[in-house]
Amino acid sequence: MRTAAESLAEIRRLIDTHARADLRTPIDGLLLSKVVGGGSPDYSLTDPLLVVMAQGGKRLLIGDEVFEYRAGQCLVVAASLPVTGHYLDTTPEHPSLAMGLVLRPEALSALLLRAPPQPRTRAAAGAAAIATGDASPELLDAVARLLHLLASPADAAVLGPLVEQEILWRLLTGPQGEIARQIGLADSALAHVNRAITWMRDNYAVPVRMEDLAQMSGMSVSAFHRQFRTVTAMSPLQFQKRIRLQQARSLLVTRSGDIAGVGHRVGYDSPSQFNREYRRLFGAPPGQDAARLRERGEPSFP
């Protein structure tokens, strides 16, 4: 097996070779990011995801909490979350290079049946849906082998799922294993809150009632509100506002001339309130911000 430094150097080379503008790769669920800028904040809506940073770094803001990870470290996101990111140590000569792997609950659940049993801890029950830390040499070695398969589609079709399974196993049995387990456990507190998060993400323009969200999560209103804030670092209403504004931002890239229509589509009846809250979050009025986004044209995951 390679050393961690050797694997990291190989991962950098392979990301630099295979990264595309749309982040996607021929291997389902594998994303590659190469960002040469990094001066402006990056706003994204992430699904459960493992990110391994190969070069540069990133600082994430979720609610009032800050998470940072750099080359040789990984990020685990266990829920759909609106995040604000700032790239670190990133220049045109030294771009940010990162690999992302979508974390599917069913894949993790299958491995949990074979993983060493671990006692449920109070910390796990009340954990945030995000964690950062050093990537193990074994995890980096498996990531490098998965990226190697991009040059051989025939091998990737057969060996890709096996190497992905190894990556998930290394994740489950490593330092970030506790948060990854919460994704695969159907009865975890995170899984219950995720039902409400998924509904809010799919119905962001609909007014929310705490009673309904708590009921679909199988909790009392007070327990739901407390657990939701623990997982997302936001209240349900703050979460909905972020989802609405980030969806509006995506729409404005292609519909910049219809600001009032976009605001109404994401749930704002008042154009002035939409403009005010949009500017407060993104630092510029909707039309100006959309023009800036089109010039940048750089998709990103956390």
UniProtKB/TrEMBL annotation:
Location of the HTH araC/xylS-type domain: 194-292
PROSITE patterns: HTH_ARAC_FAMILY_1 (PS00041), HTH_ARAC_FAMILY_2 (PS01124)
Domain of life from the UniProt record: Bacteria
SMART domains listed in its UniProt record: HTH_ARAC
GO molecular function: DNA-binding transcription factor activity; sequence-specific DNA binding
Entries under Pfam families matching the protein: AraC_N, HTH_18
Keywords carried by this UniProt record: DNA-binding, Transcription, Transcription regulation
InterPro entries: Homeodomain-like_sf (IPR009057), HTH_AraC (IPR018060), HTH_AraC-typ_CS (IPR018062), Tscrpt_reg_HTH_AraC_N (IPR009594)
Name by which UniProt lists this protein: AraC-like DNA-binding protein
